[in-house]
Design a protein that fits this description.
CATH class of one domain: Mainly Beta
Number of helices: 5
CATH architecture of one domain: Sandwich
Number of strands: 17
Strand content: 25-35%
Helix content: 10-25%
Low-confidence stretches: 28-35, 275-313
Structural class: alpha+beta
CATH topology of one domain: Jelly Rolls
Largest sheet: 17 strands, mixed
Length: 323
């Protein structure tokens, strides 16, 4: 008997089999598209006190609590007597005061590229673009602002804020800043620089405010007016002591968790390595872990907080070979 006679006859797929396969293919396509549409996690809530919500671009709203994730495209809103402390993936922080609305317009950060033992060039440009709709915040910039300040921006109703440093306060008043006692502050945008400097740009031009300087911008067409003293509108820009202690404890947990995830990924060989990795073998290794930024082979490497950003740039320029 030939082998061909032993083979079972080949039957065409039934209608149900074809339909099942089509459903599986559709499901896989839907899942792939859904993953592509998932926004990037921009940070984590270190503290949410009172009524704090996040709304996505399609209007879906959710209540935020300590430890919850925030994503690119989210609009975070704080109610009256409510605060939010946001800790971003690159180490930036924003403390939102009561009655504020703050939007994460877009955000991209690649933690794998900043691994201290295997630094690399990010596969895509890192950026952090935000918008203050109402209210105010205290901000401290992270690695994105330090390493590529042109890719960090805050849009407000009266000006766009770029950074030249690290710490600043911002509040926008529109007949809603009478909570400071006395006469209500004049409407407009108020800023104060705690560290470094900021650049404020609108239709009238650009003004840079240095550390210790305060400013007011009445409208998008008005020039920046430097103030002699800190305005009353910026009187309460920090968390109350009890809330600050809670936020600090949660922030330490958040950052420790991120560190442990990177360590596990490194041990498992799961770090995403971009094709371009910067200087070749033997080149001085830059350490970029959010606290240190120096050459691994250099002696006396100091934490970033102990080395002014301007001095870092001057040191790097000195090390570059002459053309």
């Amino acid at each position: 008997m030939s082998r061909d006679r032993l083979r079972p006859p080949v039957r065409p797929d039934s209608g149900w089999t074809i339909l099942l396969r089509a459903c599986i293919c559709c499901a896989l396509l839907v899942c792939t598209a859904a993953r592509a549409d998932v926004p990037e996690q921009a940070g984590t809530v270190a503290l949410a006190e009172g009524t704090v919500t996040a709304a996505t671009a399609d209007g879906t709203s959710r209540k935020l609590g300590d430890g919850d994730a925030i994503y690119a495209g989210d609009t975070i809103t704080t109610g009256s007597a409510s605060y939010a402390d946001l800790d971003f993936e690159d180490g930036a922080t924003f403390v939102l005061r009561p009655d504020s609305q703050f939007r994460v317009q877009s955000y991209h950060y690649e933690a794998d590229a900043h691994d201290p033992d295997q630094p690399a060039t990010p596969a895509a440009p890192e950026s952090a673009f935000f918008q203050l709709v109402k209210g105010g915040f205290r901000a401290v910039t992270g690695l994105i602002g330090h390493l590529n300040r042109d890719e960090y921006r805050i849009d407000t109703p009266t000006a766009t804020i770029g950074i030249r440093g690290t710490g600043y306060d911002v509040r926008y008043c529109q007949d809603d800043c009478a909570d400071e006692g006395g006469a209500a502050p004049e409407n407009g945008l108020y800023t104060s620089v705690n560290k470094g400097s900021i650049a404020m740009r609108n239709e009238s031009g650009e003004t840079v405010a240095a550390v210790g300087q305060n400013a007011h911008i009445a409208s998008i067409r008005d020039r920046v007016r430097l103030l002699r003293q800190r305005p009353r509108a910026l009187s309460r820009m920090t968390l109350p002591p009890a809330l600050a202690k809670r936020a600090m404890a949660r922030r330490q947990q958040i950052r420790q968790h991120r560190l442990e995830i990177r360590q596990h990924r490194r041990a498992a060989g799961l770090l995403r390595r971009p094709a371009q990795t910067g200087p070749g073998p033997g080149a001085p290794r830059r350490i970029l872990d959010g606290r240190r930024r120096c050459n691994g082979a250099a002696a006396g490497c100091k934490p970033l907080a102990d080395r002014p950003l301007g001095k870092l740039r001057r040191d790097e320029e000195k090390k570059r070979p002459a053309p």
